[in-house]
Amino acid sequence: MTGIVKLGLVAACALAPWQAGAQTAVNMAVLKGLAPVAVLSKTYDGRAALAANLTVTGAIQTGAIRQPTLLPFADQQQQALKDAFITDGDLSQLADGLGTTLGGAYHARAHYNDRERYTNVSQTVAGLIAYTNATTGSDSNAGKYFFANLTTDGKTPVSEEAADILKRNGGVPDIFGRSYGRPAGSPGADAFGNSRPFQTEPSVLPIIGPDYFNVPADNNAYNKGPITNLIDSPSYPSGHTTYGYMGSLVLAVLVPERYQQMIARGAEYGNDRILMGAHYAMDVLGGRALATHDLAHLLANDPAYLGRRLTSIAAPTGMGQGRPGTDAITDSRATVEAARADLKAALQAGCGNPVEVCAREDIGRFSDPAANNAFYAVTQTYGLPVVYPEMAGKVEDVGQVAPEAGYLLTVAFPYLTLEQANRILTETEGPGGGFLNDGSPFGVYSRLNLYAAAGRAAALASK
After folding, report:
1. What string of pLDDT tens digits covers the 463 residues of the chain?
2. What is the dihedral of CA 406, 408, 410, 411, to 10 degrees?
3. What is the DSSP code string of 175-193?
């Protein structure tokens, strides 16, 4: 099965004309959730977090902070260069998280032939990917210009309702540009606001090597052109990270035997954007919370997220395997079940054994659970300071604050009740008080630890 993805390279990062437009109701919910970034300069704790964001980002990118990455630093840089391309049509680049055996079986059916043409496992799997990617991508893209200069496309003002989000919380656009000496339109800055690290950091370490298609490239070519030009593409939130977590979560719920490894892959993909010099730690954390929030609402069959034509939620040309705008998911859990059946059959045919057997056959970088856990842990908060002290020591009852979150586990592990799933998410949640964790339902997604939660859920199957 082949489809065309004309915008596959830039769909989640550099904004294109199809992405401009008024914010939808779903966009609005995400903009409200991401809005705490706009008030960081108003408090001492917020200003400390902003300063740390720049320092930590630069130190990770240059290697001054050595993270427990899944590959040696030089090799991880090369992986970051490969991850600059977005395989949003079939998620093939993320399938490394399925392991060497299942990943190979996936790539045999779903792969990119070149930058525009790709294959997929089945129409059902393709439709699930297209709809989920369009949903999360639309929300990420809505945030970029909104938080840069309160527009939909750099020039067109947002609706009065959207503008009221920052009026009510006293926030300001272009928080990174203002804070890091590169306000919108100034020399070397993004024309619209929220300049990226390669524009604000004192230095950016070059990465030179083959890209996803084994073509000689470097991070400069993916940041400033000619491959992609992000000079006037606002930084917050990270579209690549949104895509990476969206795709990793989709594969996690489709292949729950590799749930934890897929979460580690999502963390790696987002972190690689920091290594590229393209995004701040806060961009990555924002993209992760956004993707997790949206997928939970989709899996919960939230009516606001269902029944939308792809074109109405800013789907790239060619999404839906050549039928853009015609594929509307009306029952996401039923769609996941159908896609899982298709994918399971394809993987078993490719690996020659049941999926649960092949899932254990892995000699790649995700084969060490302790290493996966250690790496995921450092990406949970990136060590950024607490902004909301009242939340730092508070256990948030996920079932009370964001009950739909439990579907992130129950759809993958159906022996769990929603109550059990939310209890697991509560018991495993990460540190509180981060820049998004302001007590809102969206904020709790910023502290979910799906790696630990999936391990707990999987362990219950044997009891």
Report:
1. 434 332 233 333 433 333 344 688 999 999 999 999 999 999 999 999 999 999 999 999 999 999 999 999 999 999 999 999 999 999 999 999 999 999 999 999 999 999 999 999 999 999 999 999 999 999 999 999 999 999 999 999 999 999 999 999 999 999 999 999 999 999 999 999 999 999 999 999 999 999 999 999 999 999 999 999 999 999 999 999 999 999 999 999 999 999 999 999 999 999 999 999 999 999 999 999 999 999 999 999 999 999 988 776 754 433 333 333 347 899 999 999 999 999 999 999 999 999 999 999 999 999 999 999 999 999 999 999 999 999 998 999 999 999 999 999 999 999 999 999 999 999 999 999 999 999 999 999 999 999 999 999 999 987 6
2. 150
3. HHHHHTT--TTSTTS-SSS
Q: Is the pTM of this model over 0.85?
A: yes
Question: 218: Cβ–Cβ under 8 A, 6 or more apart, which residues?
Answer: 81, 206, 207, 208, 209
C-alpha distances in angstroms, 79 versus 73, 83, 269?
10, 6, 9
358: its two tokens? 């092949």
Q: Which residue has the tokens 């619209």?
A: 192
CB-facing half-sphere around the CA of 48: CA atoms within 13 A: 10
Which amino acid is residue 59, in one-letter code?
A
Which position has the token pair 């961009």? Answer: 283
Q: How far apart are CA 2 and CA 416, in angstroms?
A: 36
| CB-based contacts of 452, cutoff 8 Å, min separation 6 | 373, 428
**Contact 294/30 with Cβ under 8 angstroms?**
yes
Give the chain's end-to-end CA distance (angstroms, integer): 41
Q: Computed from CA positions of residues 379, 380, 385, 387, in that sequence, does the dihedral angle turn out positive or negative? A: positive
3-state secondary structure of 412: coil
11-to-30, 184, 240, 310 alpha-carbon distances in Å: 19, 23, 9, 14
DSSP 85-128: S--TTT-GGGGGGG-HHHHHHHHHHS-BSSSSEEE-S-HHHHHH
Nearest one of 215, 237, 332 to 285, comparing CA atoms: 237
